[in-house]
Design a protein that fits this description.
The complex is a heterodimer of chains A (about 750) and B (about 80). Chain A has about 750 residues and is of the alpha+beta class. Chain A contains 20 helices and 27 strands. The longest helix of chain A is centred in the last third of the chain and has 28 residues. The mean pLDDT of chain B is about 95. A 5-stranded mixed β-sheet of chain B has the order 2-1-5-3-4. The longest helix of chain B is centred in the middle third of the chain and has 11 residues. Classes of the chains: A alpha+beta (about 750), B alpha+beta (about 80). Chains A and B meet through strand 7 and helix 10 of A and helix 2, strand 4 and strand 5 of B. Chain B: This is MoaD/ThiS family protein.
Chain lengths: ~750, ~80
Amino acid sequence: MAFDETKTEDFKVVGQRVKRPDGVDKVTGKAKFGADAVAPGMLFAAVVRSPHAHAGIVKIDTSKAEALGGVKGVVTRADFATGLTGGDLDVLENVMAGEKALYDGHAVAAVAATSQLIARDAAKLIEVEYEVLPHVTDVDMAMASDAPVIREGAADQSVPEGMHANVVRYHESGHGDIEAGFAEADLVVEDSFKTEATHQGYIEPHACLAQLGGDNKGELWCCTQGHWNVQKLCAAMLGLETSQLRVTASEIGGGFGGKTAVFIEPVALALSRKTNRPVKLVMSRSEVFRATGPTASTSMDIKIGMKKDGTITAGQGTFRLQGGAFPGAPMEFTAMCAFAPYNLQNVKQVGYDVMANRPKQAAYRAPGSPMAAFAVESVIDELCKKLGLDPIEVRLKNASKQGTKASFGPTWDRIGLVETLEAAQSHPHYSAPLKEGQGRGISCGFWFNHGGETSVTLALSEDGTAQLSVGTPDIGGSRASMAQMAAEELGIPYENIRTTIADTATLGYNEVSHGSRVTYASGLATIKAARSAVKILCARAAAKWGIDEDAVVWENGCAKPSGPNAGEFDPLPIDKLTRSMGRTGGPIVGHFEATPEGAGVSFATHIVDAEVDKETGQTKVVRYTVVQDAGKAINPAYVEGQFQGGAAQGIGWALNEEYIYGEDGRLQNSVFLDYRIPVASDLPMIDTVIVEVPNPGHPYGVRGVGETSICPPLAAIANAVSNAAGVRLKELPMSPPRILAALENQAKNG
Amino acid sequence: MVEVNLWSGLRAFAHGKDCVEVDAKNVGEVLSGLVEKYPGLEHVIEAGVSVAVDGKVIASGLTEPVKPDSEVYLMQQLKGG
């Protein structure tokens, strides 16, 4: 097969539901996660965190802690690099506070000792003198003229004059004549919505083991979605040469975007350098909630005009996102995703990135998109109800498709939204009768997907098996899908491929496992690395037969003459070629290094049935169907797992999960008992339908699937709950008190 | 010359225009051409942008080709979770 050829049918291994190679290790406890790393002479660390939402740090006295037996070292901001600017400075400020503590839980010092207990005791002996300052945690209040300023001068040049200093970035996009569009409409609905911050909720807390000597050469083992990024950031924070820090990614117990950043890794490295001992640092769950990135909270205004026949004439959205005490809330994605499913002649979206005294937000599956869908799809549902229109018919009527103009500008290439809507419409779920007290909601959702820098090698062994080294941590079964793609190209059994997540010293740079990029980009790189190995195999066979390299083809794991004119030779299987490779030119290794740019976007349509108890306000999701375009499902079981995972997290976000801050600006619910993620008994069986509209930018047509699945749930569930309760729910989570309040308000006001 | 569409928030840095022309054969030349003609866009481009060329979103590749009749949109830099 030629290096750039695409393949869309006759797959032998791709499309099979093979077992993941890491499965047995994970269910038997053999797999090594972040906290499992150990080293001789290892110390244990604890972090001192601010109890205040906003405070000047007047003085830090570490003398009592340092005098405690077993304590080997203490670090503060003075132990990190100086002179950083821009994003690196923001990351360092978040990792270890400088002049001010910016949120409850902000790290101000850390200590390493010979046991975890001593480290915790020592942390309590570190005396920090604070000057408590006024704080703000709500996005709308943070924009008000009387709000305390979190950090002066943080705004970039995009922010219009006159905005509060907490507004740090501004986005505006769209096309057409928005007012003329509204004038054309038979009905215009305008409403406001809010969503609270939610945490990615990964089961494994952040953990690492660091070893850094006085010579500034180091090793770091950690749970992360991207160890090259960890290497780069830690080197900057510690003033190291990047290549002198080798980072190895452990198995990862969930990330969902939250492990694309660094929090404790630079701290452990600083402690290790200071003590000249390996240092282990593991966060508690409470630290994870207080000091690692949740998603942004939002406040949104939506206005949509529609004709009686369901044609949307104009859409307008204003999206205010609070991303903690640093710039970076993904308001531009919220704005660009909001109306992406629809072909609108008149559309305008405005976004504000707002700082508040909360932890620095981190990416969470399709950052910014789920909230936008909640607001926009709620208004579309309201329009459909008021005009007596079928919600899927209206979405089909307005759907984006190849050749229409996206709400953020470009003309769409081949996309699969219509196919997901048609599959949802014909699914038995959509026409199933509802019981008393139940409501049905549907929603579409969109995410861009991403390619990114990628480096892969595939080394053939003497026996004809293969070792595949990739640099993207396996957060969703990617070792299985990579091995499937390599096996497909090499024509050997799936079991004959071993996929390893290589460390930073082994491969070229690999971007983080984010943006739903792994099966797309590492998959593309794997296919091309395998094809480059096949090319060498064919050359070795050609040399043996004494014919031209181009006269050899690779089929079913064997080199063969391409036709009768090439000569008559028996096929040479892979193991015969690899057995002699040391004597026919040396080791056979395929590799691929590039930044693939053809990540295909993805759309989904979800159907939800919910039941609301109007006495208690409790909601139960009774039926859920996910329909999503995967381009090509390499392993359908893991694609379905991504679909179900997005829906499950969306159910939590929609119904129960929220960051609750007290009047004092402190987080009130920093453990899972108080921050309620869904458990198995909260969820129905989540049905899935895989739609396959091939992405022209991938050799097999793959589109990323990991993020789009969380885009529709908030809206689909809100529509179902609103239809069941008989009142529009405009604020997430739709917890029992909020549902009761909405019902009470409706009874009062009619 | 290639027509480059800007998101409307950038008008303030491009003399009030949301569609400008630059002389470019690839994405890198589009970006450098924009900065040369409209220096106010430099901070935006340095902070990171993506470029959509004929519907394909180029997240970072400066060597991706651009034709005179290509549809080109400057977009916010794409990331993900």
